[in-house]
Amino acid sequence: MTAPASPLAARHDCLLVVDFGSQVTQLIARRLRELNIYCEIHPFQAVDAALLARLAPKAVILSGGPASVIDAGSPRPPAEVFDLGVPVLGICYGQQVMMQMLGGEVVRGDGTAEFGRAFVTGSEPLDILDGWFDGGREQVWMSHGDHVARLAPGFGVYATSPGAPFAVVADPSRHFYAVQFHPEVHHTPNGRRLYENFVRLAGFTGDWTMGAFRDEAIQRIRDQVGDAKVICALSGGVDSSVAAVLIHEAIGDQLTCVFVDHGLMRLNEAEEVVGMFRDHMNLPLIHAQEQDLFLGALDGVSDPETKRKIIGKLFIDVFQKHADEIEGAAFLAQGTLYPDVIESVSFSGGPSVTIKSHHNVGGLPEKMGLKLVEPLRELFKDEVRALGRELGLPDKFIGRHPFPGPGLAIRCPGEITREKLDILRRADAVYIDQIRRHGLYDEIWQAFAAILPVRTVGVMGDGRTYDYACSLRAVTSVDGMTADYYPFSHEFLGETATRIINEVRGINRVMYDVTSKPPGTIEYE
Length: 525
Hints:
By secondary structure, the protein is of the alpha/beta class. Helices cover 32% and strands 24% of the residues. It contains 15 helices and 20 strands. The chain starts with 13 loop residues before the first strand and ends in a 13-residue tail after the last strand.
């Protein structure tokens, strides 16, 4: 089965990343996009002669992967990859599959497995290693059990490590390069330079910019939509917001946004979203004020999954009600991003035809019979933020921390009440204000307060209190899949706790959560 190629590949120099199932393949694409290189990731089983002809890649990267090239039926790229006459870079498994297919040999074991940090030493000058080994050896990240035992004809050794005598190999005459380590991870500090060298020798001009993407995306939206109407579920998050503004720039009042206010937003958030998009950006916007509906349905509910199901169902019902009032609507806009597209393609079972729906509109495309407009589906999160700046959205809005679809419901373990939500909003506002005052907001992936389902005894002045306990959470992360707690100073935590207790009636105890993910999750429910 052939994977579809984006029409952007016809407009930009394209680099093809052949995916063999590595957990860090997306990082390869992110590093390339940072260098203004347009690239696409396709699983190995979807790469065939037809796809290669459509993409016409100027270079190819073969990713790492969990398989062993020694095993029968192990993943392979098509042989045509090596006949394109373009530079090819093999990474880890990609190095081994390159050697195996071109006449070398890979073996298992023999005490040369390497996992984690290692150091490589250069042996011969090589164009792709320009800027490496200036300080002697280079730190890299290894993760391999198999290793190359004999090079393919035409290849030479250009760097070694204690566990990898063929850490970097190349056939410069054909511009074939292969490394046993992972240059895409931050544990290989000089990995960016290696990618810079590779795309330079491949002749890339770096024509992938958000300015160029903006112009192209606007024209594609116009071509797709024509004179039909589009509806967009606007959550106030970065993805749906940027998608809405981009589509509005393309088709104007043919777009109508529906903002469902479920009463679970942060302090003044609904007013900020409506003010930004309706008043400042002049987007046609329906403000569906459904606080009583959602909070009434959640009354007395404490099970986390039940909360999510109630909120999800009601969101669909409310959105459907207002969407039905928009005559002539033929398209539904979603903020689908490139990681969603990549993750929807099964590595072992072949490309899937179903793309993930945005978390706020799950199930809507099938239910409503609308066609999808997904103008951000080629972008990573950092690119979406850059595009938002191109579109004139303020940095304070573009740089906001992620906020879950169920809102404060999952930061209020146990039963939800209006009283607890009001207390939580005010505590969260003080906490975020503290983070901004100390200049820490942009260093943190996500920060929030949670109100715990427990009351504790306290003393304020000469009186006894019996109020709620508040937990503060702040994490650093790259993609939200794993996370570490942010190392606030004791001075910051003490100052913040004092402010919350003094300024928020209903809280008399504040704690800081130092749980990483895993074992915990970022959110509480």
